[in-house]
Amino acid sequence: MPTFNEVENAERLIHRLARALDGLEYEILFVDDNSPDGTAAAVREIGGRDARVRCLQRIGRRGLATAVIEGMLATTAPVVAVIDGDLQHDERLLPEMYRQLTEDGLDLVVGSRYVAGGGVGDWSEARQRGSKLATRIAGRMAGTELADPMSGFFMLRTDALRDRAAGLSGVGYKLLLDILATPGPALKLREVPYEFKAREHGDSKLDNKVLLEFLELILAKSVGRYVPVKFIMFSLVGALGVVVHMIVLATLFRSFGVGFGISQTVATLVAMTANFFINNVFTYFDRRLRGWKLVPGWLSFCAASSVGALANVGVAVFLFESFGTIWYASALAGVIVGATWNYAVTALYTWKI
Ligand code: GDD
Ligand code: MN
Question: Quick one: 210 exposed, middle or buried, by C-beta within 10 A (0-12, 13-18, 19+)?
Fold first, then answer.
């Protein structure tokens, strides 16, 4: 059970699970990303009285998918279920999921909102439409027939998970999709309907970043096998930076008659700064720098980019003048070397990956 600020829900869910799982042997493992509201401490308090309740507390880490992966790998049980810690999933379904999994020899049973008998409760029209669209894209991508490949409520055999664990991307929160899209022995699976309940306490953590995380997961599962996803996003921003550069340069030099050297310098500074901020909200949406941390971030980004620009020019001129490489190939080689340098250095020093 992944949790972030669920102190009001955790204890309730433990009680509900005890009722639902009565007669089965189980343990409840919370994976808490050091929630400021003290979820982990509350869970440990209960764990002190009931050894079946455990807490894996992660420090300095965030992420629903990685939390769930680490939690699933931390149990010795042959079967593991993933359920949100906010009472939105229907825990009363677990014994039936377990029965089907074991008696029918399945590897994976998915709690589904989109098969007959399931539902999404009181979601807004917009969220329903967004979810349907994403579900269709996701289904295509994972090559799955599942009606609800984005479900966060499912049960599987831990050995089937371990078969795939090394191939999981861990990006974002669509872990089921990640599992389905990762190569491995075929999974025998089934969907069972459930009604997604309204949240009673606390807030959803996924609303702002869902789209970017989804985009990143799709890239990770396609081109991500060959090139790091963040590098692709970084390069897209870089391409945009060239456009910004040209607009500023043209405006100053052509329209206002400013000297070329000054125009080019200002255009470079503007483009670098724009790239820094766009990368900060787009490429690194999941580790965005805020407040005063923007200052060292911007400085290190500009420093890295300046060296990258020198390397770019150096490589291009060297190829062009010493080897007679055709001009656009020389330029492209320079751009690739510069971009790779910028990406690697800013990942390390600006966003501290
Ligand atoms: N450890 C950890 N770290 N837990 C997290 C994090 C995190 O960074 N972010 C969210 N959680 C926990 C929440 O505390 C909650 O228990 C659960 O993960 C789901 O988060 P919500 O913020 O409530 O997500 P949601 O309700 O919008 O979406 C959920 O349901 C959908 C439908 O099944 C998720 O499970 C989605 O993946 C799922 O598609
Ligand atoms: Mn929720």
Answer: middle
**Hey, which of 64, 66, 70, 287 would you mutate to test ligand 1's pocket, going by the most ligand atoms within 8 Å of its Cβ?**
64
pLDDT tens by residue, 149-192: 889 999 999 999 999 999 998 887 789 989 998 989 999 999 99
Which ligand 1 atom sits nearest the alpha carbon of residue 111?
33
**Rounded distance from Cα 247 to ligand 1 centre (Å):** 42
Q: What does the pLDDT look like over 244-278, one tens digit per residue?
A: 999 999 999 999 999 988 998 899 999 999 999 99
Q: Both tokens of residue 349?
A: 């020093």
Provide the whole-model pTM: 0.77
For 78, 200, 233, the CA distances from 300, given in Å and listed in that order, are 48, 43, 19
CATH of range 2-204; options 3.40.50.2000, 3.40.50.720, 3.90.550.10, 3.50.50.60: 3.90.550.10
Q: Is the CB of 128 under 6 A from ligand 1?
A: no
Domain boundaries defined on the chain = 2-204, 229-350
